[in-house]
Design a protein that fits this description.
The chain is an alpha+beta fold. It is 24% helix and 27% strand.
């Protein structure tokens, strides 16, 4: 979770957005980072209640443990 009220991060990564009542909001995405680099991005996150399972499966299949280090 991070704050990006100026949408600088959102714009730099060209993240998907939508507008509601004059507010620009970021669509739901999940990013996996390792040593400061995005190594995987899940989008669209649908259905949202399945995303944690999908991420956990990806981490297991790609040799990442709980610490994010390769096994």
């Amino acid at each position: 979770m991070l704050s990006d009220s100026a949408l600088a991060f959102t714009g730099a990564l060209r993240l998907p957005v939508f507008e509601v009542e004059g507010m620009i909001l970021i669509k739901r995405v999940t990013m996996i980072l390792n040593t400061g680099k995005i190594i995987k991005m899940f989008y669209p996150v649908f259905p949202p209640d399945q995303n944690a399972r999908e991420v956990a499966e990806w981490l297991l299949l790609n040799g990442k443990g709980a610490t994010g280090k390769r096994s």
